[in-house]
C-alpha cells in the first residue's frame, strides 16, 4: 500500500491502482452472484443465512486467493483455503465410519469443526 505518494515510483502507484480496480471488479462480481443466490433462498433457511455471511466474506477471500491484496493477506487466505479443504475431506470421510445415530454423527462433525476452528485460530495474528 502506498502511504506517501512522494516516495512511491509511478510503477508502484500503477500496480496499486490496478490491484484496487481488480479488487473492486471482483467484489462486484461476487456480490452479484451472492445476491442472485439470496433471492432464490427460502426465507429463514440455513442457505439464506449462509449467503448473508458469504456476501461479506467472499470478496475478501477471492481477493486473497487471486493475489489482488497484500501478500500477507494472500498467504493467510491460501492457508484458510487449505484448512477448509482438509475439513471438507474429513467431513465426507465421516459417514463411512458407521455411526449408530444422528447424535453420534453430529458429535463427530462437531469435533471435526473444533479442529478446523483451532487451526484457523492459529493462522490469525495475535491482536495487540
Q: Describe it for me?
A:
This protein has four helices and no strands. The N terminus is likely disordered.
Question: Could you list some keywords that capture this structure?
Answer:
about 130 residues; disordered N terminus
Short description:
The chain has 128 residues and is mainly α. It has helices at 10-40, 46-65, 71-93, 102-123. The protein has 4 helices and no strands.
Mean pLDDT: 75
What separation lies between the terminal Cα atoms? 21 Å
Order of helices and strands: HHHH
Biggest β-sheet description: none
Report the uncertain regions. 1-14
- Backbone structural class: mainly alpha
* Number of distinct helices: 4
Shape verdict: globular
Radius of gyration: 19 Å
Strand content: under 5%
Query: Helix fraction?
Result: over 70%
Number of E-state strands = 0
Protein topology:
Blueprint: H1 10-40, H2 46-65, H3 71-93, H4 102-123
Helix pairs in contact: 1-2, 2-3, 3-4
